[in-house]
Design brief:
Hypothetical Protein Yqey, Chain: A, domain1; Arc Repressor Mutant, subunit A; globular
């Protein structure tokens, strides 16, 4: 079932069960999908929707950090609830161990030795990890590559 249909079905179900928090989060997701459809002049694919969900996830994570610094526990709780719902539609993320192993393998294969080689290594590691079909966080990959290169 396409991701957009699954989200719409879940929205209907949450409305029937009167789950206000879930309904609100799903409406935000659906609004983002509709915006994508307007921008792209057509129905967005699952890959485009996943990218939008990843962007929404990063936004929520940053907002949670800001609200924690500001002492707004009520808003932190709301954003964490939305984040959990958004992440439920994202593919499973690559584990830290897999990232470190891929980085070490690419570094060994390319002969990279310094941080000057980070661009070449990052591209190869990202490509390798995306082939697994799991979600890849570029920030985590970057940190693992820098660590492996001795930064």
């Amino acid at each position: 079932m396409p991701l957009q249909n699954r989200i719409n079905d879940d929205l209907k179900e949450s409305m029937k069960s009167r789950d206000a928090a879930r309904t609100s989060a799903l409406r935000l997701i659906r609004a983002e999908i509709l915006n994508l459809a307007k921008e792209g002049k057509g129905e967005p694919t699952d890959d485009v929707i996943v990218q939008a969900l990843q962007r929404m996830s990063r936004q929520r994570t940053e907002a949670i950090e800001q609200f924690r610094q500001g002492g707004r526990a009520d808003l932190v709780e709301k954003e964490e609830g939305e984040l959990a719902i958004i992440r439920s539609y994202l593919p499973q993320e690559v584990a830290e161990e897999e990232i470190a192993a891929a980085a070490a393998e690419v570094i060994a294969a390319t002969g990279a030795a310094t941080l000057k080689d980070i661009g070449r290594v990052m591209g190869a590691v990202m490509k390798k990890l995306k082939e697994t079909g799991k979600a890849v966080d570029g920030g985590k990959v970057s940190a693992a590559v820098k660590k492996a290169l001795g930064a």
